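hi support,

uploading two proteins for the ticket. first:
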Amino acid sequence: MEPFEVHILGCGSALPTTRHNASSQVVRIGNKLFMIDCGEGTQLQLRRGHIHFSFINHIFISHLHGDHCFGLIGLISTFGLLGRTAPLHIYADRKLEELLQPQIDFYCKGMNYPVFFHHIDATRHEVIFEDNTITVETLPQNHRIPCCGFLFKEKPKRRHLIGDAVNYYNIPIYMRQAIKDGADFITPEGETIPNCRLTKDADPSRSYAYCSDTLPCPGNCEYIKDVDLLYHEATFADSEQARAKSTHHSTAREAAKIAKEAGAKRLAIGHYSSRYDDSSTLQQEANELFPGTECADEGMVFSI
């Protein structure tokens, strides 16, 4: 199977600390890299993770709080310094273009690549990106400003050809894609060979959901049902429930409840408040509802 990985570049919250960087991730699917959020320090984390800048063509910004987008203008500038020519696509609230375009015009004069802004509506669940292998959907969040999460889903894959059967029936190369798609094979003598004798099941399609920053949104559970990996913010412990509610963030226990209701196969928590010296308290509380909860940390790679 091709790689499907989530690289954690930053999993802290608004206040900078020496323990965590501001929010940013890179999702690798095959040879394609997609960035989610771009807080300060993202470029250094890309270097530390040996992630090739030039392979990032699509950046998804969940919302316009600084810890999720202050690193963007620096990254755009660096792309220009590296001689980038490929277009860069940014998916975000329409206000980001209003804020960022003047900075691009001022700091990035003579840049040799175009930046395209794709406006997203954080109140709607919809497909905002699609190619021949994946879709990216928005997940409306409940935060103090318009905010959405993102769901990355592989499209259904083709069935696998059984090599011995292909050789035995001498199936021409030009027919093999159709057989992968489910077609039967008719021999030159007119015999129909059913697809089940020529192929075996395709690899299962995989999925990843990113939910930050938000109060718990049970309504999204139908969209992320049975997701392979859910990254959900867990800014606070239960003892800070009132603070979580007033700032429109989730506790670790609430993140675990969403994962459980959605039937997620794995849960990773992040976006930790700067008040916690480590994430053990948050992990313990989430584990009570969702055993096996994993704590994100800079440099971690989650393989799906």
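and the second one:
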Amino acid sequence: MPTITHDQVRVPADVMPEARETYIENYLKATRGTGRLMLFACDQKIEHLNKDFYGEGIDIADLDPEHLFQIGSQGVCGVLAGQRGLIARYAPDYPEINYLVKMNSKTNLVKTAQEDPYSPQLHELEAVLAMREAGVNIVGLGYTIYLGSEFEATMMAEAGELIAEAHAQGLIVVLWIYPRGKAVTAEKDPDLIAGAAGVALCLGADFVKVNPPKPEGEDERTPAEALKVASTAAGRTGLVCAGGSTVDAETFLTQLHDQIHIGGACGNATGRNIHQRSLDEAVRLTKAISAITLADATVEEALAVFNGEKDFTI
């Protein structure tokens, strides 16, 4: 099992001396003391509206937002990421969960053909810090940038300022960076994904969430092999891949294992593949995902955890 000690946490220079211990504590919480992030993405109620929570192939339990917090409480993850209001409504009943507040969001109603995407910041950092002061276990912030959008400069400026302010307060920051807009012809182009990773590093993010690259044409690399370029370009910013739409557990766990052990990913960021399942199945999948992410389990060992044949705790 990969582990890091208190002294091995690389603290960015923009973390103020008085916030250094808080940053280290939050980093170790978010990564479960491994340096790898297991992010449970629960921000889709704005991003994708209700279609990700109710419909064919989705367990009826997912319609109730509390399902997300039950999974986060009973399963194994590093952080539960969601909007400030969502966390504020349920955190009092689930104080043990590590929370990452998603600072900006937009719906998917306005398509790129109509307007390039812009996801505005929904509130100031002070509102999050007030929640932390009130006792909510907030360890970090998240922010989405649509690289290639005509509004990318605004989003990068917002993200850069937010990262500086968050670090000064001892919070970690995860950037979601997706190439998207009229100027982008292939959103999962490996070079663009690697470019997004480099942008996250330059903005000072602790982790960056990207879509897995999709090599095409004469590029004969596997997605995991192409991902290695991006994870290297990210430098000291840990790279994690979005989980995407729900697939069978073995396929998902195999992709995750390759992303980490071939692609150099520093964990994972999974939403629909977890929460669209029943509570029991979702909890088992978080444990299987964490077995790979946090304990270097094989796909076979992780499947045994998912199938209830083997337990996993950390």
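thanks. also noticed: The two ends are 10 Å apart (CA to CA).
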